Amino acid sequence: MSYFDSETLVDFVELLEALAGKHVAVLGHLRPDADCIGSQVALCRALNACGIEAVCLNKHDTPRVLLPFVADTPWATPDSFDADGWTAVAVDCADPTRFGPEVNALFPEFFANIDHHRSNPGYAKVNLIDAHSAATGEMLTGLFLDAGIDIDAVSAQALYAAMATDTGQFRYAATSPRVFELCAELLRRGASPALASEHLFENDPFAKLDLLRRFLDTVKLEFDGRLCYGVLPYGIFEETGTLKEDAEGFVDYCRDIAGVDIALLLEEYEPGRTKGSLRAKTATMHVDLLAKKLNGGGHAAAAGFNINEPMASVEAITLAAIKEHLATYDAGKL
Ligand SMILES: [Mn+2]
User: Fold this and answer.
1) One domain, residues 96 and 233
2) Is 146 a domain residue?
3) Ion ligand 1 residue ranges (Cβ < 5 Å)
């Protein structure tokens, strides 16, 4: 039985052959999530096991909750990395500017790009993009199994975490039979759902409750209850003694409300720079198209954008765009 079509598998095997003898930097995106880190870990370890020198490289540090999934996988940061003679392979990154300028300076071009975002334009020499996969970790798990590549226990756990989080703990529409089949294979290779959940969801610092309380105080409904949104003003992390990563999943409090079509979280992460996270209950709402209008991108039910404006003006811009988007949706014209 194979998980991917033969064309994708041939592309993957040819990619591995092309990487033989090279030094490979496995790149992840800014503010890495579990799919990004898990995919980096698994690809890096698979390359190492094939005798290919590889190291994971990110601008941002691995979030605290994801460190246990990295184990002894080699890791580097752009400030102390000499990229001379190294080849870049990107995972889970839809947009080449999402590595951060320091990484782009090291790697002006990309050899390969493995991703599941529909908006990925195929910015590398070799592009493996499957928008039907719920996670990049799903692609890698299936391709490793199809290609007969060993998955060690560390990679199994990392790939499990990638799929568990990108499917919203197996709740989102992209959660397919293949996701469960692949997770079963990962469990047979040492992945533990209980331990993964403990690391990911049951290990919060107490200060996170303070952050959450303050976020929930800002949450409002708009447009007859179809939009639910909240904000994280600049300085809130410092004031509460938390990290940006502690706000992971906050937007879901908005998404989970009955009658809500679109959930939004706005965060002014630097004075005059605001990031928006968009979620929808169904892919038909196409928040990726909404994000695109705001200079961002992503998936049909989960997308994001950045605007170099302070919170108040981004709030006004975004609400106007959402109002228009809902009207277009209602008119059946999305
Ligand atoms: Mn992903």
Assistant:
1) no
2) yes
3) 35, 92, 136, 166
We report the CATH number of the domain holding residue 282 as 3.10.310.30
One domain, residues 24 and 154: yes
pLDDT tens per residue, range 266-299: 999 999 999 999 999 999 999 999 999 999 988 8
Q: How far is the CA of 135 from the centre of ligand 1 (A)?
A: 5
Q: How far apart are CA 124 and CA 109, in angstroms?
A: 7
Range of the domain at 153: 6-201
Q: What is the pLDDT of residues 238-255, one digit of tens each?
A: 999 999 999 999 999 999
Structure tokens at 290: 């909404």
Distance 115 CA to ligand 1 centre (A): 7
For residue 216, the tally of other CB atoms under 10 A from its CB is 12
Domain count, the chain: 2
3-state DSSP call for residue 221?
Answer: strand
Beta bridge partners, 62, equal: none
Query: From the CA of 137, how far away is ligand 1's center (Å)?
Result: 7
10 alpha carbon to ligand 1 midpoint, in Å? 22
**Is the per-residue pLDDT at 77 higher than 90?**
yes
